[in-house]
Amino acid sequence: MKSKIKIWDAAQYLETEEDMAAYLEAALEENDSALVAAALGDIARAKGMTQIARKAGLGRESLYKALSPDGNPEFSTVLKVVSALGLKLHAATGKKKKAA
């Protein structure tokens, strides 16, 4: 019996704005720029890469390239994509809360 292997695609599971925001938040918490770019790419694919590229004022192909595993998008590109996705980045202190 042969097993069928299917590649898991996060974009297929990002159905709501809350899903997308939580996914990006989790990526940001890892402090890994490549992971954040990949998460933005997954979210953009879930919403429609062509539509997001248009809203961000970028070419679709250049957006795919910037958000690919080998991509290294400029911060201005990241901000344009986040805005086009209808998301916001937030800052918080790195201090951990003390247990009560």
Q: Distance between termini?
A: 55 Å
| Elements, N to C (H/E) | HHHHH
Domain module tally: 1
Low-confidence segments, given as residue ranges, are: none
Main β sheet profile: none
Mean pLDDT: 92
Helix coverage percent: 40-55%
Q: How many helices?
A: 5
* Beta strand count: 0
Helix-strand category: mainly alpha
> What percentage of the residues does DSSP assign to strands (E)?
under 5%
Morphology call: globular
Radius of gyration: 15 Å
Model description:
The model has no long low-confidence stretch (mean pLDDT 92). The protein is mostly helical. It has one domain (14-84). Helix 2 (33-47) crosses helix 3. It has helices at residues 17-29, 33-47, 49-56, 60-66, 75-84. It is globular, with a radius of gyration of 15 Å. It is built from five helices and no strands.
Please outline what is shown here.
By secondary structure, this protein is an all-alpha fold. 53% of the residues lie in helices and 0% in strands.
What would the keywords be for this entry?
100 residues, mainly alpha, globular
Topology:
Layout: H1 17-29, H2 33-47, H3 49-56, H4 60-66, H5 75-84
Helix pairs in contact: 1-2, 2-3, 3-5
